């Protein structure tokens, strides 16, 4: 392994820079980024406030017989419905309308797009979110440490544990207007902090990992992330953190179990390369297979 050289700073490692500016470009006292705290809009058919019946009707009218994957969303990641096997009610209803061997369909939006920064108005468990906690969740280590941790992750963890797409993550990391999902970014830093040889990390590793774990776990439990694929990825990375075997929420068994159950709900365990037909793009199919 190539030896890394770092210039040690007197500054504390966890100096809680408010990363409202993007994880890669945050500075002390910054307020940005321009869009990080706003909603990334996507077409809504129906609106997020639509009733369950309207959502189902929209799915039956447009989703089952869809000829292209982006029937409901033109830009952002698609919400996917897995119809299950022949014992599932939804599978039976879908087959009665469209007798094809499909397992996944595009689904109308049922939840509003959340802002990047958690707040008491949009977070599902808002009653547990104070302003101090919200600020803590968007605080990161110093810029040089963040950069080193991201590089460590892709150099030493990603080659044998490729749960995220490197090109997409690096692009988001450089883009202040479209930063990485908050929970996924904390999880990447946490996994890298377990093995990083950066002096500012190695000298206070228990404190660093405990802080990063607290933030990633809090975002997960606040249900601030709607994209279930990100939840699978984050849970698999949070599993790198082990405090003690007696603390159920702080061991690998718990977090791998969380990832597995969410993945099963998405149908990641089903074979999409054989006899099944699907509109799901090849990239997403490969991503499902790699995660499973």
TrEMBL record:
Residues 1-11 have a biased composition (Basic residues). It comes from Friedmanniomyces endolithicus. GO terms for molecular function: DNA binding; zinc ion binding. It holds the Pfam family Fungal_trans. The keyword Methyltransferase does not apply. Residues 19-37 have a biased composition (Polar residues). Residues 151-292 form the Xylanolytic transcriptional activator regulatory domain. This is Xylanolytic transcriptional activator regulatory domain-containing protein. Residues 1-52 are annotated as: Disordered. Keywords: DNA-binding, Nucleus, Transcription, Transcription regulation, Zinc. CDD domains: fungal_TF_MHR (cd12148). InterPro entries: Amide_Lactam_Regulators (IPR052073), XnlR_reg_dom (IPR007219). The keyword Cell membrane does not apply. GO terms for biological process: DNA-templated transcription.
